[in-house]
Amino acid sequence: MKFKLTAILLVLTIGWATAQQKKWTLEECVAYAVENNLSVEQFELDLENVKIDKKDALGDLLPSLNASASASSNTGFSINPTNNLPTNSTAFNFNGSITAGITLYNGLQNIRAVNRAKMAAISSQYRLDNLKDDIRLNVADAYLQILSNKEALKVSKAQYAVTEQDLKRTKELVESGVVPKGDLLEIEATAANQEQQIVNNESLVLISRINLAQLLQITDYENFDVTDGAFEIPLSDVLNNSPKSIFAKALEFRNDIKFSKSNVELAEKDLQIAKGAYAPTLSGFFQYGSRYSDVTEIPDSNGVYYTPSFKDQLWVFDGISYGVQLSVPIFNGWGTRNNVTRSKITLEKSRLQFEQDKLDLETTINQAYVDVTTFYKSYVAAEKTLEARRLAFEYSKERFDVGLMNSFEYSQAQSRVDNAEADVVRTKYAYIFRLKILEFYFGIPITLN
């Protein structure tokens, strides 16, 4: 029994440790964020409300059916409801009815309301999908920021490792009297500065991890991390397309454009509904009812008066009524006309917003296209600069080792290499993110493959 308990605890411990060591991929982060984002959950509830509105609109096309009943007792003079004769006694009365009604015509407002409700459900879905698109981009940005900070941290640690070797060698040279002690102090200052940079980069990694965890609604910041690895510049064919062709394709599938266009269609339907109020309303009704009173007397076959039972009176005094009703709008304080005018204004605003959204999308794509080419050139230039800085540093190192360069000049050469390496990391991930944005507008899912 003790062995079994130990084995169970061991399995649980291993499982817990594995869970703590989990490192998230970009695809996992995106999927988790879309699934657990609070705004997504709110928009999904809004979508459920829109679906209920659709049921309401369908229900307005159906006949209404209502039942009513009333019971009363009165003492003194009253009119017997069963025979309309005066009576002066204590009486108990009961009335019951079932009424059905249906709108036969009201300017097609009900039918158009159903169509509008269907369109509203589609529009709400576009709105939800557009939110998910924004979340995907935000998660990708936060994810790549972690990778950029991690790579910068690796670079700073590697730089510090080289400086430690220089520091050790310089100490030996100072002790042997080859170089002055000032050179050692200069390199020690460089090492201290690099240590500070390592601390700063570690803080940036932690902060960027927290930012991504918050996007994912994860509170265990300490154990949250993403997959490690050096991500090289990805290959992409998106730049083989012109900004105009990317924009043309984006118009076909972008959810923000679909949502904006659906708002125009909803405004058009609202205008039709508002105009429908000018038309007459024709409705039909049908009613079945009956009544009972305990003071009612009717003659039997022998001419003797008696009070029928409750059941008998319901059958005797029942009746039906049916008919149609026509209501013609003539004047309602310009209410209908004002509603139509408001709907026209809303329609025009939605059309203008749709055109503005298309212009914004085109501007965003053009900017993304320029950013991709610009940051790629910046990355290539940073790589060339780094290569040149490294060659210059190697030359400086050779001169420093033989005493032809002082420690200050040597530290400056090393600082230029450090800055060049930092520029490579910065421009690399800036280019990758903007490339992913451009691919996203072209319909390519966000991945790092």
Automatic annotation (TrEMBL):
Subcellular location: Cell outer membrane
InterPro entries xref list: OMP_efflux, TolC-like
GO terms of molecular function: efflux transmembrane transporter activity; porin activity
Domain of life: Bacteria
Keyword Signal: yes
Signal peptide segment: 1-19
Keyword Chloroplast: no
Main location per the UniProt record: membrane
Cited Pfam families: OEP (PF02321)
Listed GO CC annotations: cell outer membrane; efflux pump complex
UniProt KW keywords: Cell outer membrane, Membrane, Signal, Transmembrane, Transmembrane beta strand, Transport
PANTHER family in UniProt: OUTER MEMBRANE PROTEIN TOLC
Family per record: Belongs to the outer membrane factor (OMF) (TC 1.B.17) family.
Protein name: TolC family protein
